[in-house]
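Hi U.,

Before I forget, here's the chain from the pilot set. I'm dumping it here mostly so it's searchable later in email.
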Amino acid sequence: MTAGSDAKIILVVRPTRLDELIARFNSAAQAQFYVEHLGADFSDYLMEHKHYGAAASAAETGLRDFGRVQRLERRYLANFVFGPEDLVVVLGQDGLVANTLKYLDGQRVIGVNPDPARWDGVLLPFTVKDLRRVVPEQQAHRRPVKPVTMAKATLSTGAVLHAVNDLFIGPRSHVSARYSIAVGGRTEQQSSSGIIVSTGLGSTGWLKSIYAGWAATSAALGGATAPAPDGAFAWDADFLHYYVREPFPSRATGCSIVLGRIGRAESLELVSQMPEHGIVFSDGIEADFLEFGSGVKAVIGVAERCGMLVI
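Structure:
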């Protein structure tokens, strides 16, 4: 450990696909039998597991030169208490970086690509070898940091959920969501398959797919052939973008409020009319959700805090 350094460094790791198969089938041998029985190549699972394990060990060993290191598995993120001065190193993929950011409040995050030959890593600008250079630079406040705007859902029950990529508000299964929606002084009763609220970071994911589908449908119906916008906007943008999926027009429900921006001083308000199956979840993690049943009000807006990604 370098002289005078008593910093705490949290190394966030995830299970590999092989780890998850072993948890399901109890052993590597049984996992191999299952995968190969389906005609897939089990050696790819082994190679990924080997590379990730080696990267995790090398990262932890190297980080001990710069502070006290605690390895944190992904499944414990929601209940872990991060210190205000903790430096967080995430051994990706991108999704793990996004999932980690939403549980932080100003702590700096270094995204590390454990296997550049396998993963592109938009949020993983560094390799394990880079840590020896990047960590002391960050500890000396010499590394640039990119803010990442987050979304926040606040329910009338008191529950709160943050999102780094996007929020989904709607039904748990393939049924219609019923609710009232209010934004920008307009209110409407709606029935739809749910609402997506995207941050700038998430705008190249789920939101992009929505725009792509809309553009393809328009073209197929003889609409404009000019390139359609893909919905992407800056990670640190001071707004969110909402999109209502498949709104159904009827005597009782409308579809005039379907997309738009939510600025920092604004909010999107939803009141559930779903006696069951209504939920709010973030960043594609359906297991981490809030109940959104009849009468519950959700206020959606830009979060007060933002993610801080070291670049």
